[in-house]
C-alpha cells in the first residue's frame, strides 16, 4: 500500500501531522507493507528567499493578520506540538521560502534519505531556528544525512530537482489539494489535516481492506507477445 | 490517468508494444490527460556487460535454445516489427546488459526526456546495432537529447540511478509482472504483452470510464488542522 503525503516545510501542522501519522503507522499491523512517499507543496510560493523579521511580523505586516490573532494561533499550535513531543519556538523561526528545501528533499530521495531529510528540516525550522532557505544549512544537513557535500552544493546551486518540486505541486492541484498536510492512500482515499492518530489508523485499515490486486485484462492470445526470463514468445 | 509501462531495452516486443500503445493513445480522446511513465525491467540481469557474439549465438550457446528456433523467433518478430514501421536487424544487434541503459533513462527522466531516451535506445539497439552497454554511446545519445555531456558521463560512471532501477524491478515483482512489456493503468488494470492497438484502446476507455476522484475521508472537525495559502486553522 502506498501513502503519499503532500506537505510543506514551513507548515506547523505538517510536523504535528507527521508525528500523528507515524504513530498510527507504528501500530498498523501491515506497516511493513506500507510505502510512504513525501510530496512537495508550497503554502506560500511568494515568500522571499529571506525575510528580516519574525514570523509574527511577516504574517501581520505582509499578510495583514492582526498580531494578536497570530500570537494566539502560535500558542495553540505550540501546545498541540508539545502534545506530540515537539518543541516549537516561534520566536526563533527564520522566515524563508521553502522551494530550495523541497529540491533538497528530492535530492535526498534519490539516496533513500527523503524521510530523514523531511524530519531534519521540520525540526530545524520549528525547533532550532535554522534557515531552510540557506544553502549552507542545507549542505550541512545533507552531510549529516550521509550525502556527498559537493553533490548537494552543486545540485542546490543549480536548478536541479526544480521540475520534481513543480510536478508534485501540480499533482496536488490536480487532486484538489488546497491545504496541507494532505494524505493520499493508494490514490483512493484522501485525508486532510493533522488528524488524530486514530483517524489515520482507521483510514489505513479501510484502505488495506479494500486494496485490490491488478486486474489483468484479457488480450488477444495470438498477439500480446511478451518476453520473459526464458526468451520471447 | 496514469499509465506505467514496465519494459526492457533488450526486449523486441517492447518496442513493438510501444508503437501499438502509442497508436491507441494517439486515437484516445482524452490523450492529453494521460501521463505515461516508463518503468525499468530486466529480462536477463545475468547478461554480461559485453558479449562478443551475435544474439543468435548468445541465445543458443548460453541459453541453450536451438539455433533454428532462435532464427524462426527472430523472423517472426522482425515481420511484426515491420508491420509497425520498425526495421529490426538481428544480425547487427550488440548483446549487452541493459542496466546502465536503464540508469540513463532515469537520468533522462529528471530532465523530462525519458520517453525520448526510451525511443532512442530501442531504435539504437534493434535498428542500428548500437551497444546499449557502452557509456560513450549513452553519453552521445544524451547529448542528442539535449542533456549535459559531463553530467551524463559522471552519473553513468558512478552508480547514480541504480536505486531507481532496482526499485522499479522490485515493484514489478510485487505486482506479479513476469514478462514485458507490461502496461498498468491507474494501478487498476494490467495488460500483458504487445497487444494490438485496439486492445490498448479498449483498456484506456475502460479505465477512463471507471476513474474516480479521491474520497476525502471525514476526520475530526476540531482536529485535522491544515495550513493553506491564507495561514493555518
TrEMBL record, chains A, B:
Coiled coil: none annotated. It comes from the Bacteria. It holds the Pfam family DSBA. Residues 3-205 form the DSBA-like thioredoxin domain. PANTHER family: GLUTATHIONE S-TRANSFERASE KAPPA, THIOREDOXIN SUPERFAMILY PROTEIN. This is DSBA oxidoreductase.
Amino acid at each position: 500500500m502506498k501513502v503519499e503525503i503532500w506537505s510543506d516545510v514551513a507548515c506547523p501542522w505538517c510536523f504535528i501531522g507527521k508525528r500523528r501519522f507515524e504513530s498510527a503507522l507504528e501500530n498498523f499491523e501491515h506497516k511493513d507493507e506500507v510505502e510512504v512517499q513525501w510530496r512537495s507543496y508550497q503554502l506560500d510560493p511568494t515568500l522571499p528567499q529571506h525575510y528580516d523579521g519574525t514570523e509574527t511580523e511577516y504574517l501581520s505586516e505582509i499578510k495583514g493578520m492582526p498580531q494578536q490573532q497570530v500570537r494566539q494561533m502560535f500558542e495553540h499550535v505550540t501546545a498541540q506540538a508539545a502534545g506530540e513531543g515537539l518543541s516549537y519556538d516561534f520566536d526563533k523561526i527564520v522566515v524563508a521560502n521553502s522551494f530550495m528545501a523541497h529540491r533538497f528533499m528530492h535530492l535526498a530521495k534519490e539516496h533513500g534519505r527523503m524521510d530523514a531529510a523531511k524530519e531534519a528540516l521540520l525540526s530545524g525550522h520549528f525547533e532550532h531556528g535554522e534557515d531552510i532557505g540557506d544553502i549552507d544549512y542545507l549542505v550541512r544537513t545533507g552531510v549529516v544525512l550521509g550525502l556527498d557535500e559537493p553533490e548537494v552544493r552543486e545540485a542546490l546551486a543549480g536548478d536541479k530537482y526544480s521540475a520534481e518540486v513543480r510536478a508534485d505541486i501540480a499533482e496536488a492541484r490536480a487532486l484538489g489539494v488546497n491545504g496541507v498536510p494532505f494524505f493520499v492512500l493508494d490514490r483512493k482515499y484522501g485525508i486532510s489535516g493533522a488528524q488524530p492518530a486514530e483517524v489515520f489508523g482507521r483510514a489505513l485499515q479501510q484502505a488495506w481492506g479494500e486494496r485490490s490486486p491488478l486486474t489483468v485484462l484479457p488480450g488477444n492470445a495470438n498477439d500480446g507477445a511478451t518476453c520473459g526470463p526464458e526468451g520471447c514468445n
